[in-house]
């Protein structure tokens, strides 16, 4: 089922597709985060990414509950957006030799992922509310709030914990 294909005939179909999209995205993020953690040299950045890895595992568990409440098997559908963000992060990281600059790039790439997730969860909440699926809204809202908090923490690491300052002083 692709976005805006004949397989999506109703708002319910659209909600299910969006859930499959974010489910796929979260599972891809689970694979990508350990690589980012390994490359991060800033202690606060690495710790934040590790904490978010744990959160992401819990987010997938919540999505499993969302699918169960809807009477559906948890499944993902390929999400070119998240694949592209992760691919770009990998490519960028492979091109940067200076560790301070690499940390700044990791923050930026992680924030791009967070912004995608914030957008997706916000939309899913709006659709679920409109369709009367109040039983899944709290799970989605918890995930959304964690994504927003992760983005705020990344801002703090970049601006107050010195990642951007160190990168700007690199050769």
TrEMBL record:
Coiled-coil spans are 46-73
Does this UniProt record's set of keywords contain Coiled coil?
Answer: yes
- Which domain of life does the protein's organism represent? Bacteria
Task: Indicate whether Cell membrane appears among the record's keywords.
Answer: no
Q: Which InterPro entries match?
A: DUF892_YciF-like, Ferritin-like, Ferritin-like_SF, YciF
SUPFAM superfamilies linked: Ferritin-like (SSF47240)
The record, for CDD domains, names: YciF
> Which terms are listed as keywords in the entry?
Coiled coil
Q: By its UniProt entry, which PANTHER family does this protein fall under? A: PROTEIN YCIF
Protein name as annotated: Ferritin-like domain-containing protein
């Amino acid at each position: 089922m692709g976005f805006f294909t004949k397989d999506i005939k109703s708002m319910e179909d659209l909600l299910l597709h969006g859930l499959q999209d974010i489910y796929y995205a979260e599972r891809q993020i689970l694979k990508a985060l350990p690589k980012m953690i390994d490359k991060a040299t800033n202690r606060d950045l690495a710790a934040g990414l590790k904490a978010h890895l744990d959160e992401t595992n819990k987010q997938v568990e919540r999505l499993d509950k969302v699918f169960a409440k809807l009477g559906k098997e948890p499944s993902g559908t390929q999400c070119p957006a998240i694949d592209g963000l992760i691919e770009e992060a990998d490519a960028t990281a492979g091109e940067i030799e200076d560790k301070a600059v690499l940390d700044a790039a990791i923050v930026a790439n992680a924030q791009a992922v967070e912004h995608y997730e914030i957008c997706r969860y916000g939309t899913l909440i709006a659709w679920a509310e409109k369709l009367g699926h109040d039983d899944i809204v709290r799970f989605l809202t918890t995930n959304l709030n964690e994504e927003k908090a992760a983005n705020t923490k990344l801002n703090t690491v970049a601006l107050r914990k010195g990642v951007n300052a160190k990168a700007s002083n690199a050769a």
